From TrEMBL:
Its cofactor is Mg(2+). This is Unannotated protein. Pfam families: Inositol_P. Keywords: Hydrolase, Magnesium, Metal-binding. GO terms for biological process: inositol metabolic process; phosphatidylinositol phosphate biosynthetic process; signal transduction. GO terms for molecular function: inositol monophosphate 1-phosphatase activity; metal ion binding.
Length: 264
């Protein structure tokens, strides 16, 4: 396989959705009962057996059905065929901080990435909301089975914006610029994590600015869905690369202006 046209994305999407069903069946009972042990990773972020067990099940299913593909997950790292141009990138529970506090804004992120074309398929499943978003190139983007697309808002003054402030933005001197951009917008909120980007994909929010300090598994599925819905998803410099540590998604019309506004 030399490019993303060499694969049947409808079949890959069907597999990803089946995997999301399995993941939800593992993670949601943990959340509803809050019966897990919380520990901290080396970077001080939270992790539970729900994260680990969900990822284990996902990896096992991918290895069974796509043994020639590579796999990269937050909890278990790299596995599968490292020489493959195709890689499944997984975050078993995006929003673990919410998960452990009983906040229903968390999701399993599943992406299929091509080594030159980037993310071409994504599933974002948030069973506690309950919401699920998915998309694949040439197929379209959907929210709970309904076709979705980004908004047509063309000015910051009319835009709804979601921002996630963190120490990373402080470190690069960008916090004041974020505040200024919020003040220019029609309405500002902080939906956070995957959700703000999915709201961009749905056309409910026009700009989503994430924290600095992200990992590839935070970005891959989100980027795929936003792009397939007609939006743009880049790092804070405007580079389309899911492996970067920042993420901004917009309806596309506002993207260049947002990136320019955040230059430090």
């Amino acid at each position: 396989m030399n490019n993303s046209s060499d694969i049947n994305l409808a079949e890959e999407l069907a597999l990803a959705i089946r995997i999301a069903d399995v993941a939800d069946a593992i993670s949601l009972p943990y959340f509803e009962r809050q019966n897990f042990t919380l520990s901290r990773k080396a970077d001080h972020s939270e992790v539970t057996e729900a994260d680990r067990n969900t990822e284990t099940a996902i990896v096992e299913l991918i290895a069974q059905h796509r043994p020639d593909h590579a796999i990269y997950g937050e909890e278990h790292g790299h596995s599968g065929n490292a020489s493959s141009p195709w890689k499944w990138v997984i975050d078993p529970i995006d929003g673990t901080s919410n998960f452990v506090r009983g906040v229903p804004v968390w999701a399993t992120l599943i992406a299929l990435v091509h080594d030159t074309d980037g993310p071409v398929l994504g599933v974002v499943s948030a069973p506690a909301l309950p919401r699920r978003w998915w998309g694949a190139r040439g197929i379209g983007a959907f929210a709970n089975g309904r076709p979705m697309k980004v908004s047509e808002v063309s000015s910051i003054a009319e835009a709804q914006i979601s921002v996630t402030f963190n120490a990373g933005w402080d470190h690069v001197g960008g916090t004041a610029l974020l505040v200024a951009l919020q003040q220019r917008a029609y309405r500002a909120r902080g939906y956070g994590d995957f959700w703000q980007h999915m709201l961009v994909a749905e056309g409910a929010v026009d700009i989503a600015i994430d924290a600095i300090g992200l990992a590839p598994y935070d970005n891959a599925a989100v980027q795929a869905v936003v792009e397939i819905a007609g939006g743009r998803h880049t790092d804070r410099f405007g580079v389309r690369d899911y492996e970067q540590n920042s993420a901004i998604s917009t309806n596309g019309r506002l993207h260049d202006e947002v990136i320019t506004s955040l230059k430090v």
